[in-house]
UniProtKB/TrEMBL annotation:
Family matches, as PROSITE patterns: MFS
Superkingdom, taxonomy of origin: Bacteria
Protein name: MFS transporter
Major facilitator superfamily (MFS) profile domain boundaries: 228-417
Pfam hit, one: MFS_1
Membrane-spanning segments: 24-45, 57-81, 88-108, 114-140, 152-170, 182-206, 227-247, 267-287, 294-312, 318-343, 355-378, 384-403
Protein keywords: Membrane, Transmembrane, Transmembrane helix
Cited InterPro entries: MFS, MFS_dom, MFS_trans_sf
Amino acid sequence: MESNNPAIDAPLSGPDERRQRANIWRLAIAQALAGANSVVVYATGAIVGNQLAPTPILATLPLTIFVVGMALCILPMGAIAGRYGRRATFLTGAGAGVLAGLLAMYATMLGGVAGFWIFCVSTFFGGAYAAVVLSFRFAAADAVAPARKAQALSMVMAGGVAAGVVGPQLVTWTMDLLPQPIFIATFLAQAVVAALSAVILFGVQLPKPTVEQKRGGRPLGVILRQPRFIAAATCGAISYTLMNFLMTAAPLAMHMHGHSQASSNLGLQWHVIAMFAPSFFTGKLIARFSAERIMILGLLLIGISAAVGLGGTGVAHFWWSLILLGLGWNFGFLGASALVLQCHTEAEKTRVQSVNDFIVFGLMALGSFASGGILNVYGWNTVLWVSFPPLALTVIALVVLQVRRVREKSSEQPSEV
């Protein structure tokens, strides 16, 4: 819901504009560093899990715990932001990221079943860090005029391009740097990168919530029943769930089909680049064509990604599937995020954004857990086929909603806005 307050709608100028630009740059850099941490988890999680787990079916459990950590920590982190401001949340999350790297290093050194469960705890803290990183995109839109919010959100997400380069290379450069077991140096580097992110985030200057913002706004149930919010949450959830569902299984599937760790790392690198590189212009596309149309395009690209994966199990099939998956996620998730910004007032933003992300990552946790089991029992092709039904249903629902909104606009009187 956009404000009618000219003081809010007007573009920032002078010191306020410079501060907001500095915030966006800091958040974009922190997005890159935090994204590298997440790439480390995805690149190593299933492999380390497969080495340490008491049974192969639990190989991807650490990645599922990562997503569970995201889902469970979104609302508490949102509550901290609502009470103490976003920067307090940012620093709490970065601290969790440091702890995640150190615990993962200890788990791999310990080995065995005990090491497996400690590794799961480490990915939980990694998920808590990722939950905080999710709010970077919304923080970038704070104090920006409504017409510029989608672009501010998009530019911070563009910081993930660097994550797509740094993350996989961080794994490649460090995985054999120290003696066995593998990835010890990688997890130590992961902790260092999170600490560096904390230093950068410390300089972010955002206003603390006012008393009115803490207590104001409509009842949450009224907000969540809006068709626009339902569309945003559904598309965001399906886009992220299917992206994670396929990406979680892909490195292990490549390993199962005889491809090297370096090939897997490179595939993830291009996947993450594809996830974030379009962010340089996604905001402009949303402003021109509407969030709903960009969301539909994203879901269609995810479907094409699964179709390419079904074409074969060569390295090129995996790479192109992951690249298209990243592109689809960008359009689907950023389109949904931009639509969420239209569903709340300034006083409601923290609650609504946190609930949206909780819905997205609660569903994503279920998909992540199912991914490993389906891959181990039924194979990579089945993982790909399972993605089509939710995609089709969501696209149909969004098309119906778009047609309905166009009809409602055409039936409005000229005096109605």
